[in-house]
């Protein structure tokens, strides 16, 4: 079938993401927030969430007509295939009240509970918020080389919101979670597979990774037919969803450390009296 490409924001001169249908019932969402797909408030609100809504609306229209099989692949930038997503822009996050509840958390919840199987084609590096976004997919295919994954908040001093931590706890074993959270280790594709948080490695470039992810999606598109998939996911991820819906800011570790230092000084002074 011919693939119709829709771009988002709709009518914008520059697309931040696009949606195509490379085969019947298979949707491909490609992110174009150059150069590294930072998950900014505008990118999420104006492009990614509307794209997901458009995909779901099209699917539900087709479902009512009897075409009930569908699956979604989402992937990173495809010019250099260097980044799946380089995570959040913390300066913009701090300027956007409710970011984790209304923007980023909502995006992750939408993917976690999407009414069809989702596949993350990790065609480049996936760091921090981009790593968590990939973890929201039902399946993950990673490029064999030049696709590192990590959570590096410990390196630049950013606490982790409850929703992001809940996603990681859902997807990672305790030993892997400890390494991810407390060391900022950059996992190669073989390490990611050994850690159990990707499902397979694709030998080849970023486009080959996307092509393989589309094949995986086709294997699972039948599971949307009963119409119950989203409800099953909502039950399965109930605790994660609760965390994603928490309205919070990440705050400053320096303020917390300073407050703790003051508390310890006061306790030491009181002990001498």
UniProtKB/TrEMBL annotation:
<dbReference type="GO" id="GO:0005777">
    <property type="term" value="C:peroxisome"/>
</dbReference>
<protein>
    <submittedName>
        <fullName>ClpP/crotonase-like domain-containing protein</fullName>
    </submittedName>
</protein>
<dbReference type="GO" id="GO:0006635">
    <property type="term" value="P:fatty acid beta-oxidation"/>
</dbReference>
<dbReference type="Pfam" id="PF00378">
    <property type="entry name" value="ECH_1"/>
</dbReference>
<dbReference type="InterPro" id="IPR029045">
    <property type="entry name" value="ClpP/crotonase-like_dom_sf"/>
</dbReference>
<dbReference type="GO" id="GO:0004165">
    <property type="term" value="F:delta(3)-delta(2)-enoyl-CoA isomerase activity"/>
</dbReference>
<dbReference type="InterPro" id="IPR001753">
    <property type="entry name" value="Enoyl-CoA_hydra/iso"/>
</dbReference>
